[in-house]
Design goal:
By secondary structure, this protein is an alpha/beta fold. The chain has two domains: 249 residues, TIM Barrel; 92 residues, Up-down Bundle (Chorismate Mutase Domain, subunit A), CATH 1.20.59. The chain contains 13 helices and eight strands. It has an eight-stranded parallel β-barrel, surrounded by six helices. Strand 2, helix 2 and strand 3 form a beta-alpha-beta unit. It is elongated, with a radius of gyration of 25 Å. The mean pLDDT is 94. Bound molecules: phosphoenolpyruvate and manganese (II) ion (MN). The site of manganese (II) ion (MN) has 5 residues, from loops.
């Protein structure tokens, strides 16, 4: 079922300046009035218009710094008044929502641990009824696109129309160098379903280390996402949370200036003709791939028949390991990555086993 969201275009929020990226920056946590004001003044002087700071912090272990709570909202108010920046913070309960509305916070975001929880989402959606405040929803910690969409739907049904998303990567068993696996394919899927939803990436929580921020931000821009939320602290080494991933305001500016922003599309005639030709080639190749997959599965079916008549088990793992090793070897010659070839051939093999199982399920040969 195609689900729709009724949203207000980000150009009408009057929050962000174009061209891309739209930037939200500020410390992981508001720690003290001095730290908040010093960071905010420096960011504002460097042209940042939207300031973030966590007031209530969802921490893995109790006893870690859990945020300064409501007093921090007064500092955000001061940032607004003194620098003219818009301010935003994370909300996770209806109480947070009411407090933020009371202190004139301009925008809210829902964190990854809360967007995974429909009860909390509904509670916050109810608290946001009849307000006009923009809300950005981070992806749930686990890579579940429907859960993310469900969170957006709850808010939208409660009348939140200034709605956007922040992609911050996923907790997975996968071994990655990043704190949270980027899983860009889920972002791409969401973007394809809701092309008008303002889309931010959060390279800070994805990377978990400032050394990854540039490459992840560039990837987000190359995917055509509109914005970046990046943690910035006046003195990252003494930050009370996420010290390793925060940038000083000058370093943030250097990062933003290093980004290569490519056009989302071009009306240039040569470009259009060139891209149309290349896409036509791709379409033909994809059609050929389908034909080849079809032929491959026909042979798999015959193998299934053959095994059935000779009463042989379907899975001979030794044989598959050999095939895969051979394919990886050849892949190099074609400039293909081992990982890609492994993924593709494992998918083909899985389907082949399924087809053979189907043949076997027809019962013993008469
Ligand atoms: C944050 O933005 O400070 C935060 C806690 O992020 P996430 O919900 O992505 O972990
Ligand atoms: Mn953080």
């Amino acid at each position: 079922m195609a689900r729709t969201l009724d949203i207000v275009p980000v150009s009408e929020w009057e929050f962000f300046t174009l061209p891309r990226p739209m930037v939200i920056a500020g410390p992981c946590s508001a720690e003290s009035e001095e730290q908040v004001m010093e960071t905010a003044r420096d960011l504002a002087a460097r042209g940042i218009h939207v300031f973030r700071a966590g007031i209530w912090k969802p921490r893995t272990h109790p006893g870690s710094f859990e945020g300064v709570g409501t007093p921090g909202l007064k500092w955000l108010k001061k940032v607004k008044e003194e620098t003219g920046m818009k301010v935003c913070c994370e909300v996770a309960t209806e109480k947070h929502v009411y407090e933020c509305l009371k202190y004139g916070v301009d925008m809210l975001w829902v964190g990854a641990r809360s967007s995974a929880n429909p009860f909390l989402m509904q509670e916050m959606a109810d608290a946001l009824q009849d307000t006009d405040i923009p809300v950005l929803v981070k992806n749930p910690v686990n890579p579940d696109l429907d859960l993310w969409i469900g969170a957006l739907e709850r808010l939208n049904r409660a009348g939140v129309r200034k709605l956007g998303v922040i992609h911050r990567g996923f907790s997975t068993m996968e071994n990655t160098q990043y704190r949270n696996a980027p899983g860009w394919q889920i972002a791409i899927e969401l973007r394809t379903r809701y092309p008008d939803l303002p889309f931010f990436a959060d390279p800070s929580h994805m990377g978990g280390d400032r050394k990854y921020l540039l490459e992840l931000s560039q990837q987000a821009m190359d995917l055509g996402l509109e914005g970046l939320m990046i943690e910035s602290h006046c003195n990252p080494s003494v930050a009370l949370s996420d010290a390793k991933q925060q940038l000083t305001p000058p370093d943030l500016l250097t990062l933003l200036e290093s980004l290569q922003i490519r056009e989302k599309d071009s009306v240039d005639q040569d470009y259009r003709e060139g891209i149309d030709q290349l896409r036509a080639q791709i379409d033909i190749i994809d059609e050929n791939l389908l034909y080849t997959f079809g032929s491959r599965m026909n042979v798999s079916e015959k193998i299934g028949e053959y095994k059935r008549t000779h009463n042989v088990a379907i899975l001979q793992t030794g044989r598959w390991d050999q095939v895969l090793a051979g394919m990886k070897e050849k892949a190099r010659k074609y400039g293909l990555s081992e990982k890609f070839i492994e993924d593709v051939f494992n998918a083909i093999h899985e389907e082949s086993v399924r087809v053979q199982n189907e043949v076997l399920a027809r019962g013993p040969q008469a």
